[in-house]
Amino acid sequence: MAFSTQKDAPPRDRFPSLLSLQQSEDGKDFRQLAFSPSGAEKLAEAAAGYQAEQLRRAWIEVKLNSFGFARDESGTVVQLYRTQDDFEAQWKAFDHGTRDLADARKALEAAQADLAVRTADADRAKEAFESATRSFQGDRESASARKAFDKASQPFREAGNQLRQAQARAINAASAVKEAEANVAHSSVWTLYRTGDLVLGVDAKGAVVRASARAARGSLALDDVVKGGGAEAQGKALSGSVAAAVVDRAGLLRRVYATPDDVDRAAPSWAMRSYAPDGDVDARLADGRVMTKVRFSNYVDVVDGEKLPVLLSERYLLERLDAAKSRLKSADRWAIMPYNWGNILLEIPRELVQAPIEIFGGRDPRSQHYLGRAYMYKTEGGATEQHGFFRSALGFVDILNLLPDPVDRFYDPSQFPEAVTVKSPVLPGESLFSKSPVDAQNEKNVLFGVQSLTRSVRHAAEDLDAARERTLARFSGGVEEVDIETRRGRGRLAEDGKTWLSGYHESSVKVQSGFVQVGSKLIPVAQQRLSEDPSLDASRSTSDRDEDGSVTSATPGALFVDRVERRVKVYPGAAGYATQAAAMDGYGARVDERAQDAAAQRPGLEARAAAAERERDARLAERDGVSAAERDLWERWHRLAERIGAQEALERRIAEMEASIKALQGRIAWWDRYLKRLEEARRGDGTGPATPGQPWTPNPMFWVWMAFLFALGALIAAFWHALLGRRRPTRPA
User: Fold this and answer.
1) What is the Cα–Cα distance from 575 to 578, expressed in whole angstroms?
2) How far is CA 96 from CA 15, 72, 185, in A?
3) Where among 164, 189, 214 does a domain terminate?
4) In degrees rounded to 5, what are phi and psi of residue 274?
5) Which of 47, 191, 598, 657 could pair with 580 in a Cys bridge, judged by C-beta atoms 3.0 to 4.6 Å apart?
6) Which pLDDT score is estimated for 539?
7) CB atoms within 10 A of CB 426
8) Cβ atoms of 89 and 210 closer than 8 Å
9) Residue 26 to residue 40: CA distance in whole angstroms
10) What mean pLDDT, rounded, does the chain reach?
């Protein structure tokens, strides 16, 4: 293991292997960490302790979060069943697994055959439609082409719809076959238990030391001992149903609430821990009001000065989900419910009577009385004015809605007041919308519409699934992801009347147990190396929010999303800690064995090292000799290259001088010939040489030509004067 002593050490996912770390520039800042046998023993003990903590809390959560559960052949809890119907449905599926599998396969064959027929029909309809389309595009004025196109369109659409339905049936049939095959495989190795039969033995400190239950279906009896606790205390065993429990980080039971009445009595003093960016908050304020723009997470109790989470029975989560669904259904149908039929019948006369008020007073009937509430319930919600006794009495007799009764509409959660007053504390299984909240500052009743109730249903369903998966993760490992978005909305004025508050939060909670998706593979969390996947990095947060796991945030700069925070918490589970403990088991003996092997191999290794050093020295000496010879050769080459260059320059100079000599010899030969002719001319033997540079000699016909030209000019002049004399007119006397 390598670790860095630098404060700004690079993240672990940057180096996929030890070699990549050693060859990087950051490698010099890392040190190697080795475990001694005693250190490995302590690590194994710590892993076994964590395993016991996970098992203690896991069995408590099984007691709280299920009607029944299943274990595989290894004794690991692999499934939880929320209700009796779920439990009996699984039992029935196991009993009729073979028959159901045969039926599912027949249904799959029929679906595949139907899919083949629908595919052929769709292909034929497509071909006919494309042919009609081409004909129509070629001649849009043709009535027959238009008629053929219209005739082919309807079968094409119907064939496409039938094909999609057949594909969906084939996919569902294939899923049913896989589910039936899994039921057949599990029916012979899974054992079913009822949670009501589960008995948890507890020691004096509150640690679960034994889990036992008789098998409802199957042969694997449950009588597991949880290590790390003391002797089982008399009278502290958990049996039957439990409404709630307070458990610390070590998995010790600090308080147990056996009945719902016990929970209702204690719940008003609990804090309502709710999701919020930069750390969760208590939604229940000191003055008794309840915050509206947060999402409930869990209750927190104080035991001996320590704040600890309250683990509630799953029945409260189911009650909360059912209440949210019921209120959503009522809000969606509020305008047409029987108690509003009178309002529906009176709307026409009300419109006639209120027309003058609407024209001269400017009242909007869609923001008043029945219509205002009908529109309001379709949005996030709204607020209505609080009426006293006399105003309520007048409103009862005002069947024509002549008195004003404005209704405020909220289009996003930011328009709700920051906190509201409730008539009674919000108990487990309840929600804020069921407590008749009031905006005391503005003296208005706060109502919740379809959009906010839809969000409440989604949150309740997510919390129900997360509780189940979180319990399974205690056994086999899992990952919990919480995403919190800070969004911008229309907003409203704060209670001080000066600040404009426009933000609200959207959140989602997801827990995945057993296996996690890493790339294209499903990897068991218990066997996953966290360094291989940055999303599974369970490093502690630098903001002292250890309970949140790894916390990252970003500001995307989007139009409606201002900030996003993600919390990732990894549950290694009892299986993961068992793997860690097994890896350290026998580590000391393996270290001793490696030390003995090293001591036995040391003489031979030292001899090989000495021989290698001698071989290295010989090779180095040989290398030095070759290097010296190479240097000498390079020096000789440089000297020869210099001489060759000088010789080539001298040869070029000699060639230039030879060319100059040849040119001079030619000039000397010409002057010799010229001198010879001068000598011949002096002796009278020849005509003599021409003067150098004179291109011609005197021509004896020169003066003859000159006389001829002079005579010709005179003749032309005489002829010209004669012509002029003939044309000149005679002067009169």
Assistant:
1) 5
2) 52, 19, 12
3) 189
4) -130, 150
5) 47
6) 39
7) 20
8) no
9) 28
10) 85
